[in-house]
Amino acid sequence: MLNEKIKILDRIDDLDELDEDLNNHIRVGQCLIENNITISACESMTGGLFASKLVENVGISKVFDRAIITYTDKAKMDELCVNRQTLEEYTAESSQVALEMVQGLKAKTKSRLNISVTGLANNVLDKKGLVKREGGIFYIGIIYEYDDNKIEKVVMFDSKSNDRDFNRNFAVTEMFNEIENVLRESKIILK
Q1: How many H-runs (helices) and E-runs (strands) does the chain carry?
Q2: Does 136 map to a domain?
Q3: How far apart are CA 72 and CA 85, in angstroms?
Q4: What is the CATH number of the domain that holds 172?
Q5: What is the DSSP letter of 55?
Q6: Is the pLDDT of residue 11 over 80?
Q7: Per the domain annotation, does 190 fall within a domain?
Q8: Number of domains into which the chain is organized
Q9: Is the separation of the CB atoms in 70 and 101 below 8 Å?
Q10: Domain presence at residue 61
Q11: Would you call 51 helix, strand, or coil by DSSP?
Q12: Does residue 191 fall inside a structural domain?
């Protein structure tokens, strides 16, 4: 069952604060290693930034199966079996696609924890230079299986920013935060 929730966040004005929060990748990585929780990721808007942060953990190869960058619609369909109709109806930057991405990843990898991200890192403009679609909106899909339980959800975020680098880093931070949330929900203790 999909538990979809919307989380609208105000932009963090102090980028140093974001940098500090990005250190949650060490805490999460060590928790995954200590609890032997396998993880796989599929990234669109972050283009591998999540995987890059995760591999900063010494010993992560014990649990990190893979990361797949699926930047194009074709890659999402080929690598993760995202339905063309879903892409056409909702766009690649939607909760529906984030869900299909993470479900496709789970089917492919069999990792216990799977995470996806898709969204717009910056505004999309029309031919007149007007904002057609706002940047900073992204979706994280997550599936975590533990004992005889399964957590499956998609969470929406809005950074309220059009800064591409900020939004990519913010998305990665929130990916690690969502992993922390599901681990806590499953009663895993994070140090």
Answers
A1: 7, 8
A2: yes
A3: 15
A4: 3.90.950.20
A5: T
A6: no
A7: no
A8: 1
A9: yes
A10: yes
A11: helix
A12: no
- Mean confidence (pLDDT) of the chain: 89
What band does 190 get if pLDDT is binned at 50, 70 and 90? low
**CB-CB neighbours of 177 under 10 Å:** 16
* Residues in contact with 39: Cβ distance below 8 Å, sequence separation at least 6, in sequence order: 32, 54, 63, 64, 65, 111, 112, 113, 114, 115, 179
**Neighbour-count burial of 57, counting CB atoms closer than 10 A to its CB (0-12 exposed, 13-18 middle, 19+ buried):** buried
Handedness of CA 76, 86, 119, 66 (dihedral sign): negative
pLDDT in tens, 130-140: 888 889 999 99
The parent domain of residue 38 ranges over: 3-185
Give yes or no for a contact between 63 and 32, defined as CB atoms under 8 angstroms apart: yes
* Residue 1 confidence (pLDDT) above 80: no
First vs last Cα of the chain: how many Å apart? 29
* Size of the chain, expressed as the number of residues it contains: 191
Query: For the segment 45-62, what is each residue's pLDDT rounded down to a tens digit?
Result: 999 999 999 999 999 999
